[in-house]
Amino acid sequence: MELNNNKQAINVEDENQFLQTVVVYGKKRVIDKRNHYFVLMHPLKGAFIRGFGPISFTSSSTREKWVECAIVEEDYKLADNYKIELRSIEPNYGKETFDLETFISFVDQDIIVKKEPGMECVEIKWEEPLTNNMNLHHSAYTLKRVYQNANGVKTEK
């Protein structure tokens, strides 16, 4: 047993079951399986093909959104040092699989973003003048830290 930062007793063996050491580009990296990450994803669409059954697919014509994902080990195990799977915790989104080298590179470049406390995907909207009496409306998804005050009202920082 050891004490964590909050002076609570933790079982080191239990804690270590969530940590996986992988070797990427000749360097050891530790991945905590409890971490969540934000990945840009397209929503799943469904169709029924006669004689085949239901299928799910994504389309590049739908809007991408930052989706919160958890590490899963369904098809690949982190211990194999080969691939990592991130499954959306939001409905209507699927799973992304990355080579470990690609995953680490994407995290280092903020193409995949590790979730921090208070971080959420929010939609922002803005306008730009197109002519004297017409504006062009834009919207996009972005990641922001969102805090809840005592009254339950969310504020962005």
Task: Please describe what this structure looks like.
The protein is mainly beta and 157 residues long. The protein has two domains: 34-44 and 58-115, no CATH class; 116-157, no CATH class. It is 9% helix and 55% strand. It contains two helices and 14 strands. The chain has helices spanning 12-16, 100-108; strands at 2-3, 9-10, 19-24, 27-32, 36-41, 44-49, 53-58, 65-72, 83-88, 95-99, 113-114, 119-131, 134-148, 154-156. It has a five-stranded antiparallel beta sheet, covered by helices on one side. The protein has a three-stranded antiparallel beta sheet with strand order 12-13-14, with no helix packed on it. It has a two-stranded antiparallel ribbon with strand order 1-2. It is globular.
Rg (C-alpha, Å): 20 Å
Q: Indicate the multimeric state.
A: single chain
Percent of residues in helices comes to under 10%
Separation of the first and last Cα atoms: 38 Å
Mean pLDDT: 83
Query: Structural class of the helices, strands and pairings?
Result: mainly beta
Q: How much of the polypeptide forms β-strand, as a percent range?
A: over 45%
Number of helices: 2
**Shape by Cα distribution:** globular
Q: Taking strands numbered 1, 2, ... along the chain, how are they ordered across the largest sheet?
A: 10-9-8-5-11
Report the count of strand segments: 14
> Element order, helices and strands?
EEHEEEEEEEEHEEEE
Instruction: Tell me about the largest β-sheet.
Output: 5 strands, antiparallel
Low-confidence stretches: 1-13
How many domain modules?
2
